[in-house]
Amino acid sequence: MRSKGGGIRNFLLRLLYSVLTLSFLLWPQATVKAAPYWEQVGGNGLGDPNNTFIPTLETWGNAIYAGVGNYVAGARIYRSTDGNTWTKVNVDGFTHPALSAIMDFEPFGVQLYATTIDDTDVPAEAAEIWRSADGLTWTQSGGEGLDDANNTGFYQMAEYNGQLYAGSRNAAGGQLFSTADGIIWNQVAIAGLEASNTIIWSLQSFGGELWLGTSNQTDAAEVWRFNGAVWTKYFDYHDFGPPIDDYKVVNNFFNLDTLYWEAINFQTGAHIVERVTDDLLRGTVPGMGDPNNIWFSQDIVIAGSGFFFGTRNDTTPGELWFSPDGNSGIQIGNEIFNNPDNYAIYALTFKDYLYVGVSTVNNLKGLEIWRQRIDGNNFGITNKTLPQGTQGQPYSTQLSAAGGTKPYSYRLIKGVLPQGMELSSTGELKGTPQESGDFRFTVEVQDSGKKIAKAQRLFTLKIVAGADNNSILSQITELPRTGQD
């Protein structure tokens, strides 16, 4: 999300390039089944060309809600019951034009909540949170800035243990608030959180805990967790040796069987981190191979065995991606979104169709919303890891796939297996390895449908020389959690 004068783009500082000491996953191709065409809905700018960016979409009840940014009139909420006709349902900027955008929607109880932000070049307006029981009439929840005028933006919200939580932007240190009734908000103290974390940006309930991501321009972004009694710093990009301080923001969490988070990086590209266990985190290659994909969308649409997400790209148009598991993916919709004015895809939701909101720098045209019918049974290899093997000892593991028409056939298309091993057409990887080392290879699976679907995945198989067979290798290099509190 960016304004003519910079807005969020300017407050995330551009640091000098630092060399990452980590290796990341390459993104092999996956196949997505979708209708053969996209259609634009609502018209450019939803009828106003000054509606230039769209941070979020939300499906709630029988309608879709679009959180819109407008630097002339202020933040707007649009509502549609059919995806075609969109109606503005709030007063522009909630009477404050400096409140330029809706940052997030979150259902809580019987109401839908919306956060706002002052994204002007000189933040001065206290941000607000609003709610609605019918999607048409909106009332303010809590006071201006939740009683602190220096809270100039509210970001993600999440429900945890019967309360709604919201994080703020504050130059003196981001603040976290909770409410049980949507009227009274209480600040939540986070012991040990440095004031340099000026934004509490992302929130997610997972595993009986509340997870929190920060924006920290002094050092680097951090991840915290709360078990209902104690806050613990879980991950800090500054604690690597050397630090990887270009990751300034953890802007999103999502749950796909395990916890994932996204981190913004203006220098080398955003990445996605998968939490396998507390001691094993895995990271994707920055920017899916393009360092100009600096930002991944806050909105994630989980469909079938995978999820859709968007990117912000300040050099080429923003991109739409599908990943079956967070470890592999394919860019889709290029023919629609390949417009140099369309710099970001932040907003996605699903209601019979996949809806995609496209932000633009062209205030003569305005934002766009596109939709396409999708098949939730997206085809792909489901194995995320391969068991470690030992030189000279028999090895066997079975690859599997989902989402296509059975039977499936597998083949090795790139790389080599250890001497003494083979991959059968049924997906069994077997044999007695005669050599040790790390073996990288790509497997392709093909289904038996009339319209053949194919998907690929990159694996790394570790064969050790000794008898140690207690670890598991994945196709993604580990991110060690060093120096954590």
Shape: globular
Architecture of the largest domain, CATH level 2? 7 Propeller
Oligomeric state: single chain
Strand content: over 45%
| CATH homologous superfamily grouping of the largest domain | YVTN repeat-like/Quinoprotein amine dehydrogenase
The number of distinct structural domains comes to 2
List the helices and strands and how they pair.
Layout: H1 8-11, E1 39-41, E2 51-60, E3 63-70, E4 76-80, E5 87-88, E6 99-108, E7 111-118, E8 129-132, E9 139-140, E10 153-160, E11 163-169, E12 176-179, E13 185-188, E14 197-206, E15 209-216, E16 222-226, E17 231-236, E18 247-255, E19 259-265, E20 271-277, E21 280-283, E22 293-296, E23 301-303, E24 306-313, E25 320-323, E26 330-332, H2 334-337, E27 344-351, E28 353-359, E29 368-372, E30 380-381, E31 385-387, E32 389-390, E33 395-398, E34 401-402, E35 409-415, E36 421-423, E37 428-431, E38 437-446, E39 454-464, E40 472-474, E41 478-479
Account of the 3D structure:
There is one protein chain. This protein is an all-beta fold and 485 residues long. It folds into 2 domains: 8-372, 7 Propeller (Methylamine Dehydrogenase, Chain H); 380-479, Sandwich (Immunoglobulin-like). Helices cover 2% and strands 47% of the residues. A 5-stranded antiparallel β-sheet has the order 18-19-20-21-41, with no helix packed on it. Strand 4 and strand 5 form a beta hairpin. The longest helix is centred in the first third of the chain and has 4 residues, at 8-11. The radius of gyration is 23 Å and the shape is globular. The two termini are 33 Å apart. 51% of the residues are buried.
